[in-house]
Each structure stands twice: as structure tokens, then as C-alpha cells.
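Anyone? Bumping this.
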Amino acid sequence: MSLAGLRRARLPTAFFQDDHATVARGLLGCALVHGDRAGLIVETEAYLGPADRASHARFGPTARNRVMFGPGGVAYVYLCYGVHEMFNVVSGRDGDAGAVLIRAIAPLYGLTDDPAIGRGPGKVTRALGLDRSLTGRALDGDELFVAATADAGAVAIANGPRVGVAYAGRWAARLLRFAVAGHPAVSRPAPRGRAPGKAR
DNA sequence: GCGGGGATTAACT
DNA sequence: GTTAATCCCCGCG
């Protein structure tokens, strides 16, 4: 599919205003497009509301995370370790805080054809040129959007615990990480679990 | 204000 | 396996 074709296949805002883990699974096999660059989403993690001790929402609404508490369908981008930008899709209905971290993409357009180019959340933002200034931006715009592809809904899903959240107690064990099973652009170690059904 | 630490990555030994 | 890079968020006083 061409970039113009992807633009015509943009997901409506309503897609994002669903259960956070459902959105995380549904994004697998979709395209994330920024300007003339695009990647196929192959790995995601769901972060829930204030009760989730691994989520930025655990602090309640703050200057940084407030968009997580609004309606789904906008970007939430923050700086991690002072070095890497992390791109998230806000999910859920207004007042139901949560977001989905895009952990890995495979190159589609405007990127070097190398599965490592978008393997890992810091590399996703570097490859697509995403940064904090996009926080709050709607995800159905002309410059930044998510689109369904032929892969959406047709991929086998692996699941597992989220990466880098050992501090979160029992929440660290929740199976809220999802990936396209066996895809070479998934960050290592790849999740081993088998989630029921397919994406979307 | 101050201090601790992080949803990571690449470059070391 | 270990560690530096590097910033700003957040809780507490």
C-alpha cells in the first residue's frame, strides 16, 4: 500500500477509545506514519490508570502525563533516561487514564530496510522523527496518523510481561506486552506467551 | 530547592 | 555482564 493509500485507511479516533489492552493488540500490524516516513507496528505495551504501579498515571494527573487522563486518540511522548523519546498512543475514554507504548516498528516507507532500525522504543522515535512536541497531537491528522493495513487483524500475537518495570510489584507480572509472533523487528527478549485470537 | 531514579541504548570489559 | 550518557519528573521539606 502506498503512503496515500495509508492516509485513506486512517483509523478513526473511536478505535483508540477502547480497553487499553485491546487497543495495544489492535495496533499490531497497523502503520504508524509521520510525514513521509512510516513503520509497521510489531510490538506494543499497555499502561493502565492510577492503580497500575508501572504506569505514569500512577502519580495522578501531572503536567507531564495529563493527556493520559483525557480521551484516547492523541499522542503522549516523554523523555526517558534523559536520552530517549518514548512514543505512546493515549487509549480509553475520557477520564479512563491509559496509553499504549509503541516498542517496535518494521520499516515501511522512508526508512532504511533494516529490521533493527525500529527495534526498541527509543529507536522507533528516532527512526520516525517523533518527539515531545507531539504530545496532545491527534492521531488522525495529515502529518501524524495510524492506518490499518492488510496485516492488521491477520497476525499471530505473542504476549508477556512488560519490559523494565520490575519496580512495579505485582503489576510487573501482568501480561500487557504484545508482539507480532516471530517478527524480526521485535525487541529482545521477545515475549513467549501466546495471546488468544489475532489482532483486531 | 534537593535528591533519587527511570516504559533505554550503545559501547565497553 | 556492566556502565555511562543526560534530563527532567516527582515527592518531600
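Late reply, but here is one note on the structure posted above: Chain A has a mean pLDDT of 96.
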